[in-house]
Design brief:
Length: 231
């Protein structure tokens, strides 16, 4: 594992401080790094949800609320709640959905409270991924949908070396020049490269008791949307 990544013990503190620093430029950097594709990816996640009127949707690690907003636009009658433990990120959000401060490993909600739980680019930042997914499954009602969007360690083809070169060389440079934080934009690529391959993440979802697990690859396989249902 890269030496720029924090230990499991230090990870929550490190991640909260890092995202707090980059909050004002976070959305702009995401759009820049993805060539504007990040909004399309969030729309794809939102459109995978099948929701009735007044459905309850939880966005875990909502950050600046972009995914929560995409869900609200796709399902105007749904009640969307976004949670995050980095308050400076949520202060950047538009207040068209409900927001609350919360740790993804200790969600302050009842069992089976939500019809859908979504997350975007969050799971690799958790100190304990299986525990985080188990907690999302806990607050999901039977029959409810869970959708995880996350970057992958790279496309499963000849593009992987190009992907890694871009992430390890260009992204930190952009982070230094535009966000003024090279260390944050060194951590973000390295956390991606160290994260689970999509098939392994799908296996963790199955271990959490979820069914109908499937993976949708985007951006030549550098982003994966993993969908599941609680039986």
């Amino acid at each position: 594992m890269s030496t720029v990544l924090p230990s499991v013990t230090d990870k929550p503190r490190y991640v909260a401080a890092m995202f707090g620093r980059i909050a004002p430029r976070y959305d702009f950097m995401n759009t820049l790094m993805t060539g504007g594709q990040d909004s399309r990816w969030r729309r794809i996640v939102a459109e995978t949800l099948v929701l009735g009127d007044q459905a309850q949707v939880l966005d875990v690690g909502t950050g600046t609320g972009k995914l929560a907003e995409a869900v609200r636009r796709a399902a105007p009658h749904a009640q969307v709640t976004g949670v995050d433990f980095t308050l400076p990120m949520m202060r950047q959000a538009r207040h068209h959905v409900r927001f609350a401060g919360a740790d993804a490993l200790k969600l302050p909600f009842a069992d089976g409270q939500f019809d859908a739980v979504v997350s975007g680019f969050v799971m690799r930042n958790l100190a304990d991924v299986p525990a985080g997914l188990a907690e999302q499954a806990r607050v999901l009602r039977p029959g409810g949908q869970l959708v995880v969007m996350e970057t992958t360690p790279g496309p499963p083809n000849l593009l992987r070396p190009v992907f890694r070169l871009y992430f390890r060389r260009l992204v930190p440079l952009l982070g230094q020049l535009i966000a003024g934080d090279e260390s944050a934009y060194t951590y973000l690529p390295e956390s991606t490269l160290a994260f689970l391959e999509p098939d392994r993440l799908a296996g963790v979802l199955r271990q959490a008791g979820l069914v109908d697990v499937r993976v949708l690859r985007l951006a030549f396989g550098s982003v994966a949307v993993t969908l599941a249902r609680k039986p």
